[in-house]
Amino acid sequence: MKQSKHFDVRGKSVVIAGGSKGLGRELAIQLTTQGAHVTILARSPGPLEETRQELLSHTQSPDQVIGASAVDLTDPKQVQDFITSLPAPPSILFIVAGGTAAQVGFFANITTEEIKSCMDQNYFAAAYIAHACLRRWLKEPPSSPTEKRHLIFTASTAAFLGFPGYAAYAPTKAATRALADTLRQEVLLYRSQQDIRVHCAFPGTIYTGAFYQEQIRKPQLLKELEGTAENKGGLTAPRVAELTLKGLCEGRFFITVDSETDLLLNNMRGPSPRDRPVRDWIVGLVASLVWPVYRWQFDRKTVAYGKEEMSKRSD
């Protein structure tokens, strides 16, 4: 992918929180191929080292720096220690860590510990490293006032759509979207010192190992509403990484990678800025007509599913 005035990674230092597997790994590969210095973070040393070796095979020059650090992103001290240990603050921070495989299920059926762990893994893990990185950026402005720094959050289609079974997960991604929305405006406080750009990507279904692991605990109703792996129109991790980077090169604040999420986003955008105002307004108008019909169908299926389950229990 060609570099752009909005997002140029060649020779820039990039940290990817959650970079050992899935989407984070694919972003790391594509960014390495584009000439970035890439450091990946995750909790497990084994997958980290495997991915680091893979990244080394994609470097474009002998002086390209590839690193990996085992960091528990839900531990604010470990996160702060990592950011402090860097010889210089990164130019770009991708926050990709998180997931829902362990906490998927109807709200009444999951535990309070699972509710908390989902918030820890998806929201607090993002907030802690964003906070630590932003504070270091403010202490150490770039040498050139024209240099851009980028903070990229990863939310989900679930940030806009509540499905039965995602009661623990969806609120964490809505919170991530709200944090990105708030920080986008808040960093304007520092525009006279430096140019910090905040972005938020909203991938839908990504066919990775985590997706198939999630199916084990996923309620049947949720599978029916979402669709199966064969018909729900998900994307591979390399394709989602490619489309995310494309959105960044276009200078977009909110980045969607499929038409369904695009409709949902523009139906719920509120005062968030529009990257393509006329198009986004038209999509929002279409969504306001389309999604009420889908919502009615989802509600009807949920009621029918509940009746069937209650009937089974009474037999």
TrEMBL record:
**Protein's cellular compartments:** Endoplasmic reticulum
Key words of the record: Endoplasmic reticulum, Lipid metabolism, NADP, Oxidoreductase, Sphingolipid metabolism
Would the keyword Ribosomal protein be found if you checked this record's keyword annotation? no
GO biological process, any: 3-keto-sphinganine metabolic process
Q: What reaction(s) does this enzyme catalyze?
A: sphinganine + NADP(+) = 3-oxosphinganine + NADPH + H(+)
Q: In which pathway does it act?
A: Sphingolipid metabolism; Lipid metabolism; sphingolipid metabolism
- In the record, what terms sit under GO molecular function? 3-dehydrosphinganine reductase activity
SMART domains per the record? PKS_KR (SM00822)
- Main EC class the enzyme belongs to: oxidoreductase
Extent of the signal sequence: none
Could you name the domain of life of the organism this protein comes from?
Answer: Eukaryota
The entry's cellular-component GO terms read: endoplasmic reticulum membrane
This protein's name: 3-dehydrosphinganine reductase
User: What species is given as this protein's source?
Assistant: Aspergillus homomorphus (strain CBS 101889)
